[in-house]
């Protein structure tokens, strides 16, 4: 693990870092050392002397250069702390294996060399641009210090690498280090270090296993028990306890918790007494690493590693490569476009790297069409095979050389890459949409169409259509293009504008279908337009065999009868990813749909899955309409905020919001917002929503709001405790790996896995991992083993769903929302309901339509609900509320995007309130992160790659067609699940 922290004062830092190293002092001569090409250029070598170190931190370099700080204040530098896993520390310090100390030092040096080459930057003046630009310098000055205990006096090998705020740029001058990239690279640096250390530990004869929380490839030495790790991890327990107070857990929050719980260091610890205490603890729990070390040394003497034993007795290069990949939890398949080599053409370790990179690209590609090179490296290294950053980068370079990965090179500042398949799919969507130009009969004739639209609007009970709504309706009804785009910001009345269009289409004898990304919005859209409604997933599942060409003649004829000439309307189209939109337009073209209307807003939240096709299609020569008049904002505050956001002026939006902004202490946002909400009169409270960016803030807000209502006697004092299932956000590629299967999690089987003996609908609780397989405790008490890497690759839905059980208290009067759907009872994912009464083992719920449902204990929907006083913005998109209280924390910087903020604030018609712990920083975070999806086409263009010719496009389309899009009958699929709905509860 690597943590980053800014160094305080230069003098105190110099004294602090050189004062530790109590127990390994007799084991190594070099507890401190200078590192880096920058240090070499300044003749800083060998042991770190305190005076020289302090001077460098002050910006005073040995040759006389002085780096001036902003406003005269020089930042000393950044402390990168490299921590060995607890098992490594225990074996090294209790068992006395000095080789592990050297392994740690060598792995840190290797990681710093990689950081020096790929991460360290300075700002340099660019005369042509007339401004400073970031430049990768390729040199750093670091002082490394080996320490061996944590603040609680427990064994914990770690090295502080203090990177001084000085680097030499191409202009020959010394500059301050630009730390942005260093902080962004924290996780990839951690993954690089874990891989380097693991390879050295394995070379010493030890076997390794993934850590319980294997972030960035964290590992432990096999044979060191969990009991031993926990017995010497009281410091970690303190940090986790601090985080648990507020349900937090990000890397930055772990650093803050570490500071909050930090004890002062004992100035002169009694080393002998401390070691004796360690040994007594080890004896009490039966931990003796002597045999472990003895066996490791014997294996090292015979040059045996865990990987040499994996291939022992296996003949053939290809078979050995397959054995290693399998041991890594990977399932190589023929025809993988990112591993085009025939089996046996790559030596086993190169084959392992190839498979790791391919798997990483698939996993990242499920969420983004393009991704950073660093994320690709990190994700590949997390597979923990006989691979290091060198072999992974060599594979990436090879794929880029062959055109299978497209994007920037290792030395480029913008290190974004995409795959040839992603590029082909984006091009396919555009081609499919353009194929529908001038290809359909207009739904209505132009003569009198404006009057008809306004007449239908009156009949429905709508206000008069404004110019944008009217123009959109006319264009949809009279054009000859199949695909029509409707772009409009939040609250402009896009779905309302489509209601009279749907009515006229029905008058003209056309079928009308209303679609959206989730069931609640689809239902509301259907009600507004008086049309049958479905989720996009349900609609595609219904016609899945028609789309992929496997339906028989009768099925195709039936689908054509239903869809030919139909008006198909999609609301919130910005939340439909590239793959789903490709299938939707394919179906529309195949079945001669009369009009496919895609309505949405490119400034709001994009799809969870990869791609931004709605935005890309707006850049093409396709029919599109703009609706701009905001109908939702009803007060000067909201009109001004909406105007600012429409113009992209985040700063102005926050300025307008400033009088309604409440700043509270860090960690107090949920309680403050909930109290503010609960203190409102009931009628105002019922029209006010609490909004959060992510799960943690939402959960804390729910708990605080419920507690406040209990205190006021507005919900029942007595309640029941339920164990509900919180869906774990994981990609399909990630579900084929072990990292998501943590003890206590529930695994639900979503498709028949006949080869493994599981049927759709079964589920079990994870009780452990053994020999690369997940052990599940089934409801009948049977223990069954499940192999994630054998999950089918080609499903369009999840083969399994992983849940984290959590407990909530439910009281009469509580507001809840469903986190799954029950089609038979009309309960939709995301719908709001209320607990009407609790009677023994039965909970009666009043649904959004007013219906009462008795849910006896054991009813599956009692596991698929949560409190709904606070909701996150993904769920809120498409909602409208009179007033709203928005909770935003500087700690949630990755969730604070302009898209998320826009969705939150534009749900509100009259009065918006912001509760935050740092208004100015949150504003900067929102300005800095758009929340926009990446694009394969844009990545290719930005890196100078010519887009393919018509012939090349055709070849890519054929390659896409050859990719299986469904599981074969009898090979693990139970067919499409029409009741499946997506859970859009995302965030930390």
Outline:
With 988 residues, the protein is α+β, with helices and mostly antiparallel strands.
Q: Describe it for me?
A:
The chain is an alpha+beta fold and about 1000 residues long. About 40% of the residues lie in helices and about 20% in strands. The protein is built from 38 helices and 37 strands. Strands 18-17-19-20-16-21 form a six-stranded parallel β-sheet. Strand 8 and strand 9 form a beta hairpin. Helix 19 packs across helix 21. The two termini are about 20 Å apart. The model is unreliable at about 235-245, about 245-270 and about 955-980 (pLDDT under 50).
SS-derived structural category: alpha+beta
The end-to-end distance, rounded to whole angstroms, is 20 Å
C-alpha Rg (nearest Å)? 30 Å
Strand content: 15-25%
Structure characteristics:
six-stranded antiparallel beta sheet, alpha+beta, 39% helix, 988 residues, six-stranded parallel beta sheet, 19% strand
Question: What is the strand and helix layout of this fold?
Answer:
Layout: E1 2-6, H1 10-17, E2 32-35, H2 37-41, H3 50-57, E3 77-83, H4 86-93, H5 98-118, E4 121-126, E5 131-136, E6 142-149, E7 155-164, E8 167-168, E9 174-175, E10 177-178, H6 180-184, H7 186-203, E11 208-210, E12 219-221, H8 226-231, H9 234-244, H10 251-260, H11 271-285, H12 290-301, H13 306-310, H14 317-327, H15 348-365, E13 370-372, H16 373-381, H17 389-401, E14 405-407, E15 416-419, H18 420-435, H19 449-460, H20 467-478, E16 483-488, H21 494-507, E17 512-516, H22 519-529, E18 533-535, H23 536-542, H24 544-548, H25 553-563, E19 567-570, H26 578-590, E20 595-600, H27 613-617, E21 623-627, H28 636-646, H29 650-657, E22 661-663, H30 669-678, H31 682-685, E23 688-692, H32 695-711, E24 719-727, H33 732-735, E25 746-749, E26 763-770, E27 773-777, E28 783-786, E29 800-811, E30 815-818, E31 832-839, E32 842-846, E33 852-856, E34 865-867, E35 870-872, H34 873-876, E36 881-888, H35 898-905, E37 908-916, H36 919-928, H37 936-942, H38 950-962
Parallel strand pairs: 16-20, 16-21, 17-18, 17-19, 19-20, 22-37, 23-35, 23-36, 36-37
Antiparallel strand pairs: 1-3, 2-6, 3-7, 4-5, 4-10, 6-7, 8-9, 11-12, 13-15, 14-15, 24-29, 25-26, 25-29, 26-27, 27-28, 30-31, 30-34, 31-32, 32-33
Helix pairs in contact: 1-3, 4-5, 5-7, 7-16, 9-10, 14-15, 15-16, 15-17, 16-17, 18-26, 18-38, 19-20, 19-21, 20-21, 28-29, 30-32
């Amino acid at each position: 693990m690597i943590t980053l922290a800014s160094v305080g004062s230069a003098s105190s830092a110099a004294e602090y870092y050189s004062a530790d190293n109590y127990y390994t002092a007799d084991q190594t001569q070099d507890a401190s050392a200078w590192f880096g090409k920058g240090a070499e250029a300044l003749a800083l070598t060998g042991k770190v002397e305190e005076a020289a170190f302090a001077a460098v931190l002050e910006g005073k370099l040995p040759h006389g250069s002085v780096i001036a700080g902003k406003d005269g204040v020089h930042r000393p530098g950044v402390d990168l702390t490299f921590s060995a896993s607890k098992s490594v520390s225990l074996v090294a310090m209790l068992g006395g294996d000095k080789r592990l100390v050297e392994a740690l030092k060598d792995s840190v040096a290797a990681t710093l060399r990689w950081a020096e080459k790929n991460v360290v930057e300075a700002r340099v003046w660019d005369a042509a641009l007339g401004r400073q630009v970031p430049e990768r310098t390729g040199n750093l000055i670091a002082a490394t210090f080996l320490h061996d205990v944590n603040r609680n006096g427990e064994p914990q090998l770690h090295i502080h690498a203090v990177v001084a705020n000085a680097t030499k740029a191409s202009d020959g001058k010394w500059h301050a280090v630009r730390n942005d990239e260093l902080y962004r690279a924290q996780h990839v640096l951690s993954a690089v270090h874990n891989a380097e250390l693991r390879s050295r530990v394995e070379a010493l004869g030890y076997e390794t296993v993934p850590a319980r929380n294997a972030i960035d490839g964290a590992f432990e030495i096999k044979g060191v028990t969990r009991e031993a790790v926990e017995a010497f991890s009281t410091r970690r327990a303190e940090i986790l306890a601090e985080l648990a107070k507020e349900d937090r857990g990000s890397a930055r929050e772990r650093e803050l918790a570490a500071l909050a719980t930090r004890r002062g260091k004992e100035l002169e610890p009694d080393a002998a007494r401390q070691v004796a205490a360690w040994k007594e603890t080890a004896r009490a729990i039966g931990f003796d690493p002597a045999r472990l070390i003895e066996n490791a040394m014997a294996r090292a003497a015979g040059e045996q590693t865990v990987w040499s034993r994996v291939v022992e007795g296996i003949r053939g290069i290809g078979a050995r490569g397959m054995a290693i990949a399998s041991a890594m939890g990977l399932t190589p398949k023929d025809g993988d476009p990112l591993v085009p080599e025939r089996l046996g053409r790559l030596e086993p370790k190169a084959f392992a790297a190839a498979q790791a990179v391919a798997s990483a690209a698939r996993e990242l590609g499920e969420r983004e069409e393009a991704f950073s090179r660093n994320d690709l490296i990190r994700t590949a290294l997390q597979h923990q095979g006989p691979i290091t950053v060198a072999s992974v980068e060599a594979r990436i370079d090879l794929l880029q050389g062959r055109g299978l990965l497209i994007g920037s090179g290792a030395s480029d500042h913008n290190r974004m890459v995409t795959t040839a398949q992603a590029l082909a799919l984006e091009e396919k969507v555009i081609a499919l949409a353009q194929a529908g130009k001038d290809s359909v009969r207009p739904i209505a004739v132009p003569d009198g169409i404006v009057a008809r639209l306004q007449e239908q609007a009156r009949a429905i009970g709508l206000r008069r259509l404004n110019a944008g709504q009217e123009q959109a309706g006319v264009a949809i009804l009279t054009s000859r293009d199949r695909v029509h785009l409707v772009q409009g910001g939040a609250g402009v009345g896009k779905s309302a504008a489509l209601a009279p269009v749907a009515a006229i289409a029905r008058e003209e004898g056309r079928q009308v279908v209303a679609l959206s990304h989730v069931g609640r919005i689809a239902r509301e859209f259907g009600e507004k337009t008086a049309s049958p409604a479905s989720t996009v997933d349900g609609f595609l599942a219904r016609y899945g065999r028609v789309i992929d060409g496997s339906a028989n003649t009768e099925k195709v004829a039936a689908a054509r009868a239903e869809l030919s000439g139909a008006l198909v309307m999609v609301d919130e189209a910005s939340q439909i990813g590239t793959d789903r939109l490709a299938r939707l337009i394919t179906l529309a073209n195949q079945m001669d749909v009369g009009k496919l209307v895609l309505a949405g807003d490119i400034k709001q939240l994009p799809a969870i899955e990869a791609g931004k096709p709605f935005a890309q299609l707006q850049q093409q020569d396709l029919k599109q309409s703009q609706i701009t008049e905001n109908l939702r904002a009803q007060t000067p505050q909201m009109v001004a905020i909406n105007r600012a956001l429409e113009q992209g002026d985040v700063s102005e939006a926050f300025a307008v919001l400033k009088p309604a902004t409440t700043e509270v202490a860090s960690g107090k946002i949920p309680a403050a917002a909930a109290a503010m909400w609960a203190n409102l009169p009931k009628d105002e409270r019922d029209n006010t929503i609490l909004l959060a960016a992510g799960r943690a803030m939402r959960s804390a807000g729910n708990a605080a709001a419920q507690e406040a209502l209990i205190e006021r006697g507005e919900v029942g004092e007595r309640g029941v405790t339920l164990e509900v299932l919180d869906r774990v956000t994981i990609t399909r590629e990630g579900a084929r790996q072990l990292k998501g299967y943590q003890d206590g999690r529930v695994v639900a089987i979503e498709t028949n896995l006949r080869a493994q003996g599981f049927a759709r609908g079964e589920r079990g609780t994870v009780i452990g991992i053994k020999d690369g397989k997940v052990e599940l405790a089934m409801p009948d008490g049977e223990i069954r083993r499940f192999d994630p890497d054998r999950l089918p690759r080609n499903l369009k839905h999840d083969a399994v769903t992983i849940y984290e059980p959590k407990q909530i208290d439910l009281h009469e009067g509580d507001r809840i929302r469903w986190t799954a759907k029950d089609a038979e009872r009309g309960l939709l994912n995301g719908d709001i309901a209320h607990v009407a009464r609790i009677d023994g083992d039965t909970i009666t719920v009043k649904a959004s339509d007013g219906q009462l449902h008795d849910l006896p204990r054991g009813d599956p929907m009692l596991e698929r609900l949560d409190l709904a006083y606070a909701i996150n913005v993904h769920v809120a998109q498409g909602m409208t509320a009179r007033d709203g209280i928005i909770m935003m924390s500087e700690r949630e910087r990755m969730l604070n995007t302009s898209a998320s903020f826009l969705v939150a604030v534009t749900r509100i018609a009259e009065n918006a309130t912001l509760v935050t712990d740092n208004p100015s920083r949150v504003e900067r975070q929102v300005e800095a992160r758009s929340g926009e999806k990446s694009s394969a086409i844009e990545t290719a263009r930005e890196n100078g790659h010519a887009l393919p010719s018509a012939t090349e496009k055709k070849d890519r389309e054929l390659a896409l067609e050859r990719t299986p899009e469904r599981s074969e009958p009898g090979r693990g699929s139970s067919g499409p699940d029409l009741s499946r709905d997506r859970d859009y509860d995302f965030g930390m």
